[in-house]
């Protein structure tokens, strides 16, 4: 145990379902909680802190605490969309370090396949940006597409380069029996798929799936008693980026703030990472996030992701080895949780043998929430193997 | 690909933004500027988002600008162009690009404001390329 860690991830669990026809949202949350606690070797009675976001039914964590029979002395319902759970990781570590709780449960679950996809979510007429955006028919995909279009314009990023992100994810997903899309695709397949919102094709977009995931974060003392499957949380950072009063720059994400904070806390650099788990709502999200985290210079993301550089065993930076949101799973349109779960598998040496990164010691997991064309939450976590 | 007719959703209007929508109904694009720091901002607010002064004032924008970025939504019944336009006043706003061949729309293209009636009482500021 060379590197200090305020807290450890003791349990991680991804629900195997991708289409929860006969499971309620509340049950999904409880199922993943049960799975993560069993993975940790703990029970629900050990939990004294609970973290969830807007996908949890009820007021904050109150209804799910009652449903699961949790007795809590700490709760946090920070809501930043798909980045929430990577933020919860950091908040759980801080609460544990402050003595406010010792076993923190984080859950995500939902059934978006039961709802219609399409327009951007409307957060209500009191939301100050709503009147100035909703009438123009923004959608999640055209919002991200506008960021992609500007990136292509400023830096010469191409549709082929974006497609490589999907190609890499598909190479990993072929080994994941739970993945929504397990077929390997080529750059041509992506470019030949229907154009949804220029420059994003259908295969530049993530899947829609039901399901969920959970994490159990514990104090160093408890981690010691649970054994060497516990994974260190070495650093974490978060940020909010928005349209800045109309002085906009859509070529970067909040990762420019959250990344350096997380790497500084861990006293590590991107070059130290054996694995990158990057929220991949769309191919452009990965490309821009890798630049912003410092894996390459700004504007060089297209070259960085091309030619299989993100494929485990082929390229320099294995990414999203479970197939990511592009191919595997994107429970309730919130991708941060599954990024952490696969990082934990890799750092335990428990990923699928075909995608397992040899001697995987250090990993970054990054979540993006909201939309990169307008306003987003960003969160970065640096994770380390038990002996890192 | 050309501009199919589509209807525009009514904007949500608050006591804070009523003058903006009264402006669009009269064919004017209004912005807000801060009397203290001099900066314009968008969307318009009672408090300046740059210096937090409460001394903000309405003024009529030139209605001219350039396309900062855009995307053509193709796989919908009435395809449309969503965009951010950077106004000559220095602020960018989400909008639609209308009255043009969608395949000719480009970043940095010069555009000018025009208005579209919504399903309700208000009009929306949208933009069209200068000189067709
Ligand atoms: Zn000001």
Strand and helix map with partners:
The complex is a heterodimer of chains A (388) and B (132).
Chain A: E1 7-14, H1 25-40, E2 49-51, H2 62-68, E3 74-76, H3 84-97, E4 103-110, H4 140-155, H5 159-173, H6 187-192, E5 195-197, E6 200-201, E7 211-218, H7 220-226, E8 231-241, H8 255-266, E9 275-278, H9 283-293, H10 301-305, H11 324-328, H12 336-348, E10 362-370, E11 376-384
Parallel strand pairs in A: 2-3, 2-4, 9-10
Antiparallel strand pairs in A: 1-7, 1-8, 4-7, 5-6, 8-11, 10-11
Helix pairs in contact in A: 5-9, 8-9
Chain B: H1 18-25, E1 30-34, E2 40-41, E3 56-60, E4 64-73, E5 80-87, E6 92-97, E7 110-117, E8 123-129
Antiparallel strand pairs in B: 1-2, 1-3, 4-5, 4-7, 5-6, 7-8
Zinc ion (ZN) binds at residues 34, 36-37, 39, 48, 50-51, 53 of chain B.
Architecture overview:
The complex is a heterodimer of chains A (388) and B (132). The model of chain A has no long low-confidence stretch (mean pLDDT 96). Chain A is globular, with a radius of gyration of 19 Å. Chain A has 388 residues and is an alpha/beta fold. Chain A folds into 2 domains: 7-112 and 210-231, Peroxisomal Thiolase, Chain A, domain 1, CATH 3.40.47.10; 138-207 and 235-384, Thiolase/Chalcone synthase (Peroxisomal Thiolase, Chain A, domain 1, 3-Layer(aba) Sandwich). Chain A contains 12 helices and 11 strands. Chain B has one helix at residues 18-25, and strands spanning 30-34, 40-41, 56-60, 64-73, 80-87, 92-97, 110-117, 123-129. Chain B has 132 residues and is mainly beta. The model of chain B has no long low-confidence stretch (mean pLDDT 94). Chain B is 6% helix and 39% strand. Chain B has a single domain, classed as OB fold (Dihydrolipoamide Acetyltransferase, E2P), CATH 2.40.50.840. Chain B contains 1 helix and 8 strands. In chain B, strands 6-5-4-7-8 form a 5-stranded antiparallel sheet. A 3-stranded antiparallel sheet of chain B has the order 2-1-3. The two termini of chain B are 15 Å apart. The chains are: A alpha/beta (388), B mainly beta (132). The A-B interface holds A 125-126, 128-139, 142, 145-150, 153, 194-200, 243-248, 250, 374 and B 6, 8-14, 16-17, 21, 39-43, 45, 48-50, 68-75, 80, 82-84, 86, 90-96, 107, 118, 124, 126. Bound molecules: zinc ion. Residues 34, 36-37, 39, 48, 50-51, 53 of chain B line the site of zinc ion. Zinc ion binds at residues 34, 36-37, 39, 48, 50-51, 53 of chain B.
């Amino acid at each position: 145990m060379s590197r200090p860690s305020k807290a450890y991830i003791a349990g991680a669990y991804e629900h195997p379902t991708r289409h929860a026809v006969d499971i309620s949202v509340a049950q999904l949350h409880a199922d993943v909680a049960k799975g993560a606690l069993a993975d940790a070797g703990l029970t629900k009675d050990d939990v004294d802190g609970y973290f969830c976001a807007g996908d949890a039914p009820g007021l904050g964590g109150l209804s799910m605490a009652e449903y699961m029979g949790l007795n809590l002395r700490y709760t946090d319902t920070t809501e930043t969309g798909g980045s929430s759970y990577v933020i919860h990781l950091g908040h759980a570590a801080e609460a544990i370090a402050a003595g406010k709780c010792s076993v923190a449960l984080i859950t995500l679950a939902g059934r978006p396949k039961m709802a219609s996809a399409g327009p951007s979510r409307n957060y209500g007429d009191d939301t100050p940006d709503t009147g100035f955006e909703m009438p123009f028919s923004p959608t999640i995909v055209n919002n991200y597409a506008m960021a992609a279009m500007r990136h292509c314009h400023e830096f010469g990023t191409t549709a082929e380069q974006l497609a490589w992100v999907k190609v890499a994810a598909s190479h990993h997903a072929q080994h994941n029996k739970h993945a929504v899309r397990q077929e390997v695709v080529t750059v041509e397949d992506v470019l030949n798929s229907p154009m949804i919102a220029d420059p994003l094709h259908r295969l530049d977009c993530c899947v829609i799936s039901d399901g969920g995931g959970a994490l159990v974060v514990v104090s160093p003392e408890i981690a010691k008693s649970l054994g060497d499957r516990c994974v260190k949380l070495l650093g974490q950072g978060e940020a909010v980026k928005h349209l800045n009063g109309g002085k906009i720059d859509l070529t970067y994400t909040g990762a420019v703030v959250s990344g350096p904070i997380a790497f500084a806390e861990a006293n590590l650099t991107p070059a130290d990472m054996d694995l990158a788990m990057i929220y991949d709502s769309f191919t452009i999200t990965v490309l821009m996030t890798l630049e912003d985290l410092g894996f390459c210079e700004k504007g060089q993301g297209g070259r960085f992701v091309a030619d299989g550089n993100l494929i485990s065993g082929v390229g320099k930076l294995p990414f999203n080895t479970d197939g990511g949101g592009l191919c595997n799973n994107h429970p309730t349109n919130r991708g941060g949780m599954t990024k952490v779960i696969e990082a934990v598998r890799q750092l335990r040496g428990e990923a699928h043998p075909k995608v397992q990164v040899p001697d995987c010691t250090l990993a970054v997991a990054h979540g993006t929430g909201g939309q990169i064309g307008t306003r987003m939450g960003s969160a970065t976590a640096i994770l380390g193997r038990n002996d890192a | 690909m050309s501009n199919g007719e589509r209807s525009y959703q009514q904007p949500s209007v608050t006591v804070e933004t009523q003058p903006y929508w009264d402006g669009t109904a009269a064919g004017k694009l209004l912005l807000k500027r801060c009397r203290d720091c001099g900066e314009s901002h968008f969307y318009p607010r009672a408090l300046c988002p740059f210096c937090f002064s409460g001394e903000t004032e309405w003024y009529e924008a030139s209605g001219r600008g350039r396309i900062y970025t855009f995307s053509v939504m193709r796989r919908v019944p009435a395809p449309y162009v969503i965009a951010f336009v950077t106004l000559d006043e220095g602020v960018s706003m989400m909008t639609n690009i209308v009255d043009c061949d969608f395949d000719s729309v480009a970043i940095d293209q010069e555009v000018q404001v025009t208005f579209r009636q919504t399903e309700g009482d208000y009009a929306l500021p949208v933009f069209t390329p200068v000189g067709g």
